[in-house]
Amino acid sequence: MVPLNKRGRPPSGKGTQVQVRLQPDLLAALDRFIAETKPETSRPEALRIAFKDWAIANGYHLPDA
């Protein structure tokens, strides 16, 4: 049985999983980012959003069309 309150995007089976440990100060910053933007967003999704925005702003990634 699948839990009804799963957060974040459903598994796609695509992409490479990257695990990272955050120190308390960066974790607090991430939680503030979530609270101020989309409180229903999971931490992994918030990291994807923040990293994608950074990559686009710094020319490492082209914005989606």
End-to-end Cα distance: 37 Å
Overall average residue pLDDT: 87
The percent range for strand residues is under 5%
The percent range for helix content is 40-55%
Order of helices and strands: HH
Please state the CA-atom Rg, rounded to the nearest Å. Answer: 14 Å
Please give the structural blueprint.
Elements: H1 24-37, H2 43-57
Task: Please describe what this structure looks like.
The chain is mainly α and 65 residues long. The chain has a domain at 39-65. It contains two helices and no strands. It has helices at 24-37, 43-57. The longest helix is centred in the C-terminal third of the chain and has 15 residues, at 43-57. The termini are far apart.
What tags apply to this protein structure?
single chain; globular; mainly alpha; 2 helices; 65 residues
